[in-house]
């Protein structure tokens, strides 16, 4: 069934390309992981292009928790459209297409070429989706100079734009100790070591939490989060286990020295005792943020277009991660932008929805933003 859904999704994008009169290509960096790219050639195709990226996959649903069919796109009397992916991020990909449809309808021509990409696997890390694509010759041939991807909407009337993301590390901490009968009080047990390392990690977590609580100028994006998400170990209630494994999900703030941070983690393990070490399930490299100043003409064009529409922007660092991190890692400036305001944030939640008026307004916002960034003159962005 999953493969059929993939085929259906690719077929849908191809139909959209045909309706727009634009060429479409399907690339495979991995089998059954299609990357679909629609291209609108600009007046000066030799200039670095604009990439509008979106992911095709969504997170699972628990149908019994939904008031509407999660894949039915049902609209209620208030104009709220309920569907998995309505916020994350099917709406944005469709808004890209509809903005371009309106531009083409009005015979608008743009200086730079536009590529609209639809990639797989973002919700499971993106390694075999955008991660692999950015390493390919096909991506290099797109000659991308600037990219837009998803961000997070806003529950207020301020639009949030993200110029960077935290660095994600998923750590499995192995604690090896003396096994034995559950009646004994042995030294050097795996459980003792696990307790000590949890205390050290949580002391750091509490410090970051207090920083966030005590400084109103900070957001979650400005501090490092560290959470225990899994605990493994033991075979029977009356046997002291030889091994306990702790999994921590860590999101490192952009201003943290990751080399120094890793040294601190290793020091904590050494302080707990022998046979305690970290294995990284995911260890993203630190990626510099996109500059938001005059040195970045795409940002200037984006910001000016928003100001002309009375769209109030609030730049932030994204607390989570998106496919933009792969693009920024190549030195390409990229912004995360989901133009949804006055909307409850329901990404990955039950009853995810987007109001039709918010959806339609975003099409016009993208129409103006795309026009502005695609008409940036021939000047290197940094």
Structure described in brief:
Residues 164-273 form the Peptidase M20 dimerisation domain. The protein is of the alpha+beta class.
Number of helices: 9
Radius of gyration over all CA atoms, rounded: 23 Å
Task: Please report the first level of CATH classification, the CATH class of the largest domain.
Answer: Alpha Beta
Strand content: 25-35%
Structural class: alpha+beta
Q: Averaging pLDDT over every residue, what do you get?
A: 96
- The CATH homology group name of the largest domain: Zn peptidases
And the CATH topology of the largest domain?
Aminopeptidase
- Head-to-tail CA distance between termini: 44 Å
Number of strands: 17
Shape: elongated
Which regions have little confidence, pLDDT < 50, spanning 5+ residues? none
Number of structural units classed as domains? 2
What is the topology, as strand order, of the major beta sheet?
1-2-6-3-7-16-8-15
Show the helix and strand layout.
Layout (H helix, E strand, L loop, with lengths): L1 H19 L3 E5 L5 E7 L8 E7 L18 E2 L4 E3 L7 H16 L8 E6 L7 H7 L3 H6 L1 E6 L9 E7 L1 E10 L3 E2 L8 H25 L10 E9 L5 E2 L2 E10 L5 H15 L3 E8 L13 H12 L4 E6 L5 H5 L5 E4 L15 E3 H19 L8
Helix pairs in contact: 2-9, 5-6, 7-9
Family: Belongs to the peptidase M20A family.
Protein name: N-acyl-aliphatic-L-amino acid amidohydrolase
Keywords: Cytoplasm, Hydrolase, Metal-binding, Zinc
Keywords:
single chain; 382 residues; alpha+beta; Alpha-Beta Plaits; 2 domains; 8-stranded mixed sheet; 9 helices; elongated; hydrolase
């Amino acid at each position: 069934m999953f493969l059929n859904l993939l085929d259906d999704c690719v077929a849908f994008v191809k139909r959209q390309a045909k309706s727009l009169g634009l060429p479409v290509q399907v690339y495979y960096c991995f089998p059954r992981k299609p990357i679909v790219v629609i291209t609108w050639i600009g007046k000066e195709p030799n200039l670095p292009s604009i990439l509008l990226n979106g992911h095709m996959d969504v997170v699972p649903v628990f149908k019994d928790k939904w008031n509407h069919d999660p894949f039915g796109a049902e609209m209620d009397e208030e104009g709220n459209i309920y569907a998995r992916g309505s916020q994350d991020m099917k709406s944005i990909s469709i808004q890209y297409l509809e903005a371009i449809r309106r531009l083409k309808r009005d015979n608008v021509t743009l200086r730079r070429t536009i590529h609209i990409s639809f990639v797989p696997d973002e919700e499971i890390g993106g390694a075999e989706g955008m991660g692999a694509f950015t390493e390919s010759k096909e991506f290099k041939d797109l000659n991308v100079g600037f990219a837009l991807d998803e961000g997070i909407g806003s529950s207020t009337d301020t639009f949030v734009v993200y110029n960077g993301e935290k660095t994600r590390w998923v750590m499995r901490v192995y604690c090896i100790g003396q096994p034995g009968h559950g009646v004994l009080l042995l030294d050097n047990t795996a459980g003792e070591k696990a307790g000590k390392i949890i205390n050290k990690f949580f002391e750091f977590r509490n410090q970051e939490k207090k920083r966030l609580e005590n400084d109103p100028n900070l957001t979650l994006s400005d501090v490092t989060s560290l959470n225990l998400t899994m605990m493994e170990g033991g075979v029977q209630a009356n046997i002291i286990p030889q091994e306990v494994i702790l999994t921590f999900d860590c999101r490192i703030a952009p201003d943290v020295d990751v080399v120094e941070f890793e040294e601190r983690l290793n020091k904590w393990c050494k302080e707990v005792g022998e046979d305690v070490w970290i294995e990284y399930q995911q260890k993203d490299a630190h990626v510099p943020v996109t500059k938001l100043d005059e040195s970045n003409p795409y940002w200037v064009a984006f910001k000016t277009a928003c100001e002309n529409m009375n769209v109030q922007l609030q730049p932030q660092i994204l607390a989570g991660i998106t496919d933009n991190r792969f693009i920024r890692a190549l030195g390409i400036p990229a912004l995360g932008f989901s133009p949804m305001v006055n909307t409850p944030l329901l990404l990955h939640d039950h009853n995810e929805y987007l109001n039709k008026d918010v959806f339609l307004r975003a099409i016009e916002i993208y129409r103006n933003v795309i026009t502005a960034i695609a008409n940036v003159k021939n000047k290197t962005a940094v």
